[in-house]
Amino acid sequence: MATTELGRALRRWRDRVAPRSAGLPEGGRRRAAGLRREELAMLAGISVDYIVRLEQGRASSPSSQVVEALARALRLDPDERAHLFLLAGLAPPGPETVPCYLTPSVQRLLDRLVDTPVVVLDAAMTLLVANRMYAALMGDPSGQRGFARNRVWNHFLGPPGRVRHTPKERREFETSLVSELRSVAGRYPADPRLRELIDELRARSDRFDELWDSGAVGRVESSVKTIDHPDVGPLTLDCDVLRVDTNDLRILVYSAEPGSEAAEKLRLLSVLGTQSLTPHGPA
Length: 283
Description:
Layout: H1 2-16, H2 37-44, H3 48-55, H4 64-73, H5 78-87, H6 104-112, E1 118-121, E2 127-130, H7 132-138, H8 151-157, E3 163-164, H9 167-187, H10 192-204, H11 206-214, E4 223-229, E5 233-244, E6 249-255, H12 261-272
Antiparallel strand pairs: 1-2, 1-6, 3-4, 4-5, 5-6
Helix pairs in contact: 2-3, 2-4, 4-5, 7-12, 10-11
């Protein structure tokens, strides 16, 4: 019964989300005003087949990560999000876990910054949502799963990213990543996913383990970054880190000085999108 109710709820919530409100084009003939299944799958970062199986009641136990992604893609309010967790047979995340909820105000901000690369991370620096311009700049992260969506894991264990670092910048950046993650672990000591992430990083990266044991203190701050883009070449951009304290989120906004060469390249990327890009992990 719960699975049937889950499928019905997903279809109902999908039908009420207008494509435009989710930053998607409304082109083509539609039988309903809401999201298509493939659009929901793209926004949530899961397969269309899994959406179909959930809606038809053939998938009975989605993970908390899948439920959280669906709640964000469907723009559920806090009560609806909690109900979705219960329909999936899961307890809604409590205060001891890293928050992953995008408030309506954060979502409105993303909706307005369509021409600016923006990504939202949770406190553990796991990617929650990235807009089209971020995907065009850094590589499309929609195919990333599990820890590959985490900024710290990606830096120490993932493939090379597009951000260029001098040796000094790399040392400082790595110290800030590890320091902030240690601080987050102190705030959410009972979060099993966070503990699993830290254990894997310590086991597989000597550099991370060294920094973790060093006791360095700090956090990721706004900075200037040079991104080596495979199609438009290098761009030097301001990367501002905006923090939403109520939900412990980080919003990274990349911008260029008006009239600069980097600004022109960003305009070109807004046209190119991801159509000719080779995906890379976020840096």
